[in-house]
Amino acid sequence: MRYTLKKLLILISVFGINSNISAIAETSPSLKNPSNRQEINFEYDSNNVIPSAMPKMPINEEARIQNNFTVEDLIKLASIDYENDWNILVEEVTRYQKELLKTKKSINLEQALELAIRNNPTLSANKYQVLGSIWRERAEMRRWLPSITLNSGNTGFYKEELYVNSRYPKDPNDGTGSVTSYSSDYYQSSPTATISWDLFDPERGPSIQIEKRNVERDKLLLNYSIRSLVVDIYNSYTNIEIILEEINAYSELVALEIAIADAIYEVYANQLTSIAEVAKWRAQTYTSITQLIKYYQLLDEAYSEFSSVIGSEDYFPVLPKNKKLYLGKWKLSLKESIEKGKRENERIKSEYINSEVSAITAQKFINSYLPTFTINASASNAIINGIYEASLFPDPILPTSTQNTTNPQYQIYAGMTLAFDGGINLARARAQKMDQKRSLFKTKELSNEVTQLVRNSYNGLTNESINYTSAEKSVVNSKISLDVYKQRFMAGLTDTTPFLQAVNLYTTAIIARSEVKKNLVIHYVNLLKSTATWPKQFETSLDTALESIMKRREDVPNFKKP
User: Fold this and answer.
1) Segment 155-170, tens digit of pLDDT
2) How many domains are there within the chain?
3) Which region, left, alpha or beta, applies to residue 82 given φ > 0 means left and ψ of -120 to 50 means alpha?
């Protein structure tokens, strides 16, 4: 009895009666010390961990059961021995964890948003889309200004010589000699300046309105991309926290199960329990290790997603930085939320603008059949300066002339242009009318989608908020049950079945609570996105983020051809 009590005290000192399995998302998960509170060591001396005697199955009952086994079954039973495969698995998981978190960075939510605003390529693309639309609008606005054309004409220095023998070849004294040979060496220029202004252009007004609507639409889409980025950061960041919480909880659970499984084997070695108990706990331990590895895979995927969201090409393993996240209280009713979404959602508004653009474009095509009235004014001057056609012969004697001539001309005139293309633009106008109707139906479709999303997210947020309270209490009570059955098991008051059920109940409660948290975040961010609401968790406002994006300078990516 004294020896049994001594073994029980040793076991209690190792396991701890008041073990605290907690989940702290702000800390780096560690299989060696997952909660950063109490050291849990997987490498222990099995001789020092010997639980008290467990209920012993009568030998004859054990033998009777084994008599029903086949030869292959007996070979398998005989091969059961102490194994440390899970220790090898744990070491591999630990190495994987260290490699995963080798370049870990500790940032808060606000810093994550700043990184995304600075690096996310989607924001840059939408930014330049807005800037391009602004310049296209300015180009159309400048159609109100007159166009000026300057033409230098044939400007330059000219030198030529003309020799004409108009006398009789055999007798130069015969003939009139009326055509004179001459030479020229002069500068000539004929500059012209023309100002043209469309007094009435039927396509100018619609073209300007089209570009104005395009600018408005692109700004809405930029705002939508910023809001989407914010909720994506929020979603990705909280998802990492939830997974870290699950890893911490499962790390301690695996530590407990490994210790129990090894201890049960020691009991089996002393012929105080059956082989079934050993196999059952080993199966449970391997199942938990498998689940832990799965969570690390989910963490790896979450880090990759977070890296993509913030616009980083490098792997970005973030650890939440000493700042708990709370879902903001949704103050609007369901009806108010739906109305806000239908009124302010950028996708709905941008699609409606597309319908307006199609209508204006149709009017522009129709206006192309109206005349265009133009006013023109021009000024020109013909200049000759130098020797111009000076005679080469003294008989008849013609004076050598040096000219300095200017010939200014001024004109003001009006014109009308009327073109008919056989009805091509009329058909294009009809096509734009069809596009307008399509966009209106698309607007209605988006409005219905937003209404459904708001309703589902609103009800989901309400239900999951209630569910979270239940899930949290389930974790607390299952933890109490686990602690109680652990102590009863160590005291030899029960077999492993209730203890195993308590372990499964606790793991189920942890998973259920994590799923509730994920659903809460999903419903919350969907409400934010669909109703065009900026989350209050961020100190940076939409206007501040927009200003920062428009002012930032970035290097345009250069992709070289292979």
Assistant:
1) 888 877 665 555 545 5
2) 2
3) beta
